[in-house]
């Protein structure tokens, strides 16, 4: 019993440990005799527990608050809950349908309200447009141009709101009336300008004309361009008549009169007309540009006729260059003049963003096809220089020789090339400059062959001084030829740069330098030939005395002193 009691109390423990329990029961070998009784006690305890559990389960199953009854009750509650949820969903659908029915009427009312608002706004704008149109007609008749300009902008802005309503007869009629009023205003302003300028009333009507320009701004770019074009043509009419209808006035000899005439006209604009036109129109620049375009076309015709003269004579190159230089100076003055003019901001309603006007080559472009005459004149001038250099001595009688000196003609030729290149680059950086580079290359070859090599091949052989001068000059031009090529490539247009090549001329001067070195070697060989022959013929074995210097050495040294 004690063993069973011990087993029962131990098995009920929360922190039951079977190993510890067994060690407690069988703590000594002598206790092993009670194994059977202990096993019987455990089996009996297990059977009792099984019986108790079965009784408790049966009691629980058939009691009033049993799990089965609770489960059945929970199912019934759940079914009732589902019925309530379905009822709520049904009522929600009914409520939604009711609300949708109610809001449909509200939406309809909202749409009606929105349409009514749009209609009222359109009617109000139409009323404003009609009123503004009538006011504009009255202001236009009384020539109140400042008020016209602001009201015209409002009319045009209101008219844009009715672009989609032009299918309505009344709107279409009003649109035509507004367009007709715009045309009337345009013609009226142009007529006012024409009358004022024709009658010499510009000064007295300056204020009205300035306000009329505001109307042209409101009418748009086409109206503004028409007025400016009329003004430019009016101002240039006399110029075109004088210089195109008179052979003497329109000749190249009188080119300066053209530019003087325009300067006077520009001063007239600044003194009398600048206050009429808005600054952002840049009428003075448009005037200058139109003058340049017309003058360029005139020069093209004059130059073309000059090349087709019955007597076959060509244009005087000096006159051509003089006219071209005067033209370039005039272009530069225009560029400088308008570069300092303030420009209107491009964020105003009446201004248009444009690239700044440039006057570079705006007239002188006409001369470029004829610069070949100038290149030909340089060719002819160089053709006369080469024979002169060939026939003149390398050093003048009063000049002292220096081992580092070069032939004076080479320096003269270098300066000629430098000045010619700079002058051509001012006139043209295109094909004419490429032509000039080829001309310069041709005469570099001739200078190397006909001048430098000529002195090396002179009868009787060149003197030592002349050989040294030729060698120094060839080296001088070898270096400068490379620099000349680089300089031309920097100045000429990029499309022609690859065609500039003076490498063969540079090689030619290197070849002259090599020939000069060979001539020096030959000179040394000739000077030493007699002393060397004497040295070979001397019987050195019979020499009885030796001095500081032999006669052969003295002869060799004297040859190079």
Query: What global shape is seen?
Result: flat
> Helix amount, in percent?
over 70%
Order of helices and strands: HHHHHHHHHHHHHHHHHH
Please tell me how large the radius of gyration is. Answer: 57 Å
In the CATH hierarchy, the third-tier topology of the domain at 376-537 is known as Tetracycline Repressor, domain 2
Could you give the count of β-strands?
0
* Low-confidence parts: 344-355
**Which CATH C-level class of the domain at 376-537 is it?**
Mainly Alpha
In terms of DSSP E residues, the strand content is under 5%
Q: If helices are DSSP runs of H or I spanning 4 or more residues, what is the number of helices?
A: 18
Largest sheet: none
Structural descriptors:
single chain, 561 residues, mainly alpha, Tetracycline Repressor, domain 2, 74% helix, flat, Vps53_N, Vps53, Vps53 N-terminal domain-containing protein
TL;DR of this structure?
With 561 residues, the chain is mainly alpha-helical.
Structure description:
InterPro entries: Vps53, Vps53_N. The chain has 561 residues and is mostly helical. Among the domains are: 2-61, no CATH class; 220-362, no CATH class; 376-537, Tetracycline Repressor, domain 2. Helix content is 74%, strand content 0%. It contains 18 helices and no strands. Helix 4 packs antiparallel against helix 5, helix 11 (317-339) crosses helix 12 and helix 13 (408-427) runs parallel beside helix 15 (464-491). The longest helix is centred in the first third of the chain and has 75 residues, at 67-141. The termini are far apart.
């Amino acid at each position: 019993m004690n063993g069973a009691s011990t087993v029962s109390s131990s098995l009920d423990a929360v922190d039951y440990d079977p190993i510890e329990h067994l060690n407690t029961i069988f703590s000594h070998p002598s206790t092993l005799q009670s194994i059977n009784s202990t096993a019987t006690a455990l089996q009996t305890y297990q059977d009792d527990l099984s019986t108790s559990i079965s009784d408790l389960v049966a009691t629980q199953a058939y009691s009033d608050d049993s799990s089965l009854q609770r489960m059945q009750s929970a199912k019934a509650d759940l079914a009732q809950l589902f019925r309530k949820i379905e009822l709520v969903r049904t009522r929600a659908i009914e409520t939604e349908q009711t609300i949708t029915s109610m809001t449909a009427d509200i939406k309809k009312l909202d749409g009606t309200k929105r349409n009514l608002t749009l209609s009222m706004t359109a009617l109000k704008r139409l009323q404003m447009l009609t009123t503004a149109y009538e006011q504009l007609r009255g202001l236009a008749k009384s020539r109140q141009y400042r008020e016209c300009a602001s009201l015209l902008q409002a009319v045009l802005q209101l008219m844009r709101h009715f672009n989609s309503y032009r299918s309505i007869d009344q709107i279409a009629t009003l649109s035509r009336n507004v367009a007709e009023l715009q045309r009337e205003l345009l013609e009226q302003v142009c007529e006012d300008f024409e009358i004022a300028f024709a009658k010499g009333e510009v000064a007295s009507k300056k204020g009205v004309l300035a306000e009329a320009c505001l109307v042209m701004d409101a009418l748009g770019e086409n109206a503004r361009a028409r007025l400016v074009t009329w003004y430019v043509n009016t101002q240039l009419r006399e110029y075109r008549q004088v210089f195109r209808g008179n052979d003497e006035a329109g000749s190249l000899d009188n080119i300066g009169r053209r530019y003087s005439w325009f300067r006077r006209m520009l001063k007239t604009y600044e003194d009398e007309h600048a206050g009429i036109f808005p600054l952002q129109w840049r009428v003075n620049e448009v005037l200058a540009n139109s003058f340049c375009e017309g003058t360029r076309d005139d020069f093209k015709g004059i130059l073309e006729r000059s090349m087709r003269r019955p007597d076959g004579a060509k244009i005087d190159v000096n006159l051509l260059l003089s006219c071209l230089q005067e033209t370039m100076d005039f272009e530069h003055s225009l560029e400088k003049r308008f570069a300092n003019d303030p420009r209107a901001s491009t964020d105003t309603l009446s201004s248009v963003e444009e690239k700044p006007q440039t006057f570079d080559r705006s007239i002188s472009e006409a001369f470029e096809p004829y610069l070949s005459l100038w290149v030909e004149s340089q060719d002819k001038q160089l053709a006369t220089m080469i024979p002169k250099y060939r026939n003149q001595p390398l050093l003048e009688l009063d000049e002292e020789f220096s081992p580092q000196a070069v032939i004076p003609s080479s320096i003269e030729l270098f300066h000629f090339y430098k000045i010619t290149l700079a002058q051509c680059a001012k006139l043209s950086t295109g094909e004419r400059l490429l032509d000039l580079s080829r001309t310069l290359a041709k005469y570099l070859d001739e200078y190397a062959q006909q001048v430098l090599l000529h002195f090396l091949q002179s009868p009787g052989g060149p003197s030592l001084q002349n050989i040294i001068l030729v060698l120094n000059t060839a080296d001088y031009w070898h270096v400068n030829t490379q620099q000349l090529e680089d300089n031309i490539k920097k100045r000429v247009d990029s499309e022609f740069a690859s065609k500039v090549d003076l490498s063969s001329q540079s090689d030619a001067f290197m070849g002259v330098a090599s020939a000069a070195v060979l001539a020096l070697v030959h000179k040394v060989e000739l000077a030493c030939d007699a002393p060397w022959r004497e040295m070979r013929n001397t019987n050195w074995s019979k020499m009885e005395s030796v001095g500081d210097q032999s006669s052969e050495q003295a002869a060799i040294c004297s040859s190079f002193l």
